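Dear colleague,

Following up on Tuesday's group meeting, I ran the structure prediction for the two-component complex that the binding team flagged. I've pasted the input sequences exactly as they went in, so you can double-check that nothing got truncated or mislabelled along the way. The structure tokens for the whole assembly follow below. Feel free to forward this to whoever is handling the docking comparison.

Inputs:
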Amino acid sequence: MPLKDLVYRCTECGHDPVEGEGETARCSDCGATFSRRPGRALVHVESKAGTHVRHPAEIIRKISELGGPVPRATQQDGTLFYETAIVLRRASDHHVLRLGGKVLGFYERLLDRRPGSLRLTDATLQFVEGEFVTASWPLLQLRAVQTSSTALQITVLDDGMYELRFQSDSPRRWEALLHTALQRAYAEAGRPAIVEFQPRIVTR
Amino acid sequence: MILYSVFRGLIKAVMPLAGIRLVVEGREHVPKTGPFILIFNHQSILDPILAQTACPRFVYSMAKSTQFASPLWRWLLPKIGSFPTRRYQVDPQAVRTALRLLDEGKGVGIYPEGERSWDARLQPLRRGTVRLILKAGVPVVPCGIDGSFHIRPRWGSGLQRGPVTIRFGEPLCFLAQNVRTEREAALPDAIRKVEEALQGVMGDE
């Protein structure tokens, strides 16, 4: 996973997004650069303020203090709108896995690689292919949200699991964004606050 | 079992070549016989390999179900002790399999955070895992993995050299709670104890 999945927003000036590949990232606004420090999983930051080393927990805290992914996804009227390129795959029905005649568990296959865009609004998550919205999931119908490596997995009521693999965006950003959108949608619907998003959404 | 031993031997041989120095502490805390649950913190993609190599007993471990989609992994993973759990929904079959293995006197390994940490720190534990612990009523051995984050963090793309300490702690004992209401009542206290035990063996990250 690239470093910009962690540092998806500049901790020095707040600019969103940062750019980069592999273990380096750069803010196009203030010029700060982020790289993995050799030997330790710490982030080496070079900015106008100087050079320093940040622990990943500090990066996470700083981004959270800046509002996380929400400011960039918020329109002038206060509504949410954010869109990014993904490859969508749907999980098959489950298959049984046996060992020595005993059932070990169930697994699924991920079907149909469909490139397109993932679009988030206040009330829905949509998948757009070309100019057409080909799937639309009301937020209140989502049953689980979690990251899995470089992808996000969502479980939809009566529709199973979808894997949303990002082409260049951060799954961490999207997880935080969806958590925020879901909490807002639940509050607007008069439902209690969500306390757990996986393996299923649980409210207080 | 044979593949498991071969796999462990291979990993032990390859680790020094990759610059990974494995230090194991507290092996004596793993019960020599009978069922036990091993709970790990999760810092890196390397953790399952390193932890299984360090544990003195064969451990069956839960792995995400999507890993079993490929025919090769579907063949190999069960032979080295992995069984699938669907992380995106409640998976009663994964619980049944874990309880059956424990009934047979085996060890079961679980990552109660559910996924790798982004910053090496302990994440909130999945309540379902702690429910399983309360249902099983077997010794729970906390196992801290310290250092794998620096070798290959979730947001990193390459391997770095360095030491990894696998630290087994003193087993926790929970009475089996077979009544759901009693299990739910015991849950908050059990979560706190498991978190404290894991923090205690994790190191200072």
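The first strand of chain A starts at residue 19 and ends at 21.

Cheers,
M.
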